[in-house]
Specification:
Length: 251
């Protein structure tokens, strides 16, 4: 796919998503407008069940929005117009998605797990594994490349999932609670990796989180409630983290 210069990594307008039919139909996302800027770490916060995972799943192309959606542009592509097959190929090339469940393959070593996005892109196994070991070292697991996922703690598995999302240097990283299982030291390590990604040209990081420890790493914090974006804070030298977020996000 050709590289296109776009002002936003993602832009949605009037995004709607419902689940179910008839009387059991629930309207989860209600005319959501949102931009994810390149160069930013954008954080999405909000109470449980307000629609955060649904929104990032649509941005990552694993869920389709309702037809009544005005715009869904990710890295310059209109996902509404693409088939699920085309979206799957687009995601493999361009998006690193870190799920709440780590989705590691239990029968593969850590190095093999982290190699998967490169193998999908046609990188040869030896080169893929070499790169995978380099990225495992970045998340502090360089000496565990041959271990299997079930030999690791939850926090270590989370770092493997992060390594797998970074290994193919995707243009957009989308993560659901990437630091939930991490102690302060590893949380800081992971956020520094995300900052490096966001600083690279034409890259962006979008994080769903309840973890107030990482709010100081955000350039933008969007708050959701009941299927809508209700507040957006841009944070920079002249706009510090708002007082209510400095003291954590309370549900
Ligand atoms: N596949 C589905 N079928 C039916 N309802 C769903 C489905 N996925 C999500 N929902 C509903 O959509 C709403 C939003 O869920 P979502 O997982 O997006 O919330 P969230 O903000 O990410 O919550 P949390 O912080 O607890 O992870 C919830 O009411 C949930 O039950």
């Amino acid at each position: 796919m050709s590289e296109v210069t776009v002002p936003y990594a993602a832009q949605v307008r009037g995004l709607n998503k419902s689940f179910g039919d008839g009387a059991s139909r629930i309207h989860v996302l209600k005319d959501v407008d949102m931009e994810v800027r390149q160069g930013d770490i954008t954080m999405l916060i909000g109470p449980s069940g307000c629609g955060k995972t649904t929104l990032i799943s649509i941005l990552a192309g694993t869920l389709k929005p309702d037809a009544a959606t005005q715009e869904l542009t990710v890295l310059g592509q209109d996902l509404r117009q693409m088939s699920m097959g085309a979206i799957t190929r687009f995601r493999a090339q361009n998006i690193g998605f870190i799920f709440q469940a780590f989705n590691l393959i239990p029968t593969l070593s850590l190095a093999e797990n982290v190699s998967v996005p490169l193998l999908i892109r046609g990188v040869r196994a030896g080169a893929a594994e070499k790169k995978a070991r380099e990225v495992l070292a970045l998340v502090g697991l360089g000496d565990r490349a041959k271990s299997r996922p079930n030999q690791l703690s939850g926090g270590q598995q989370q770092r493997v999932a992060i390594a797998r999302a970074l290994v193919h240097e995707p243009r957009l990283i989308i993560c659901d609670e990437p630091t939930a299982a991490l102690d302060a030291k590893n949380g800081q390590l992971v956020m520094e990796l995300f900052e490096n990604v966001a600083r690279s040209p034409e890259r962006a990081v979008l994080i769903v989180t309840h973890d107030n420890r990482i709010f100081p790493h955000a350039n933008r914090i969007a708050s959701m409630d009941d299927g809508r974006i209700v507040e957006v804070h841009d944070i920079d030298a002249s706009h510090p983290l708002p007082e209510n977020l400095r003291h954590g996000f309370h549900q």
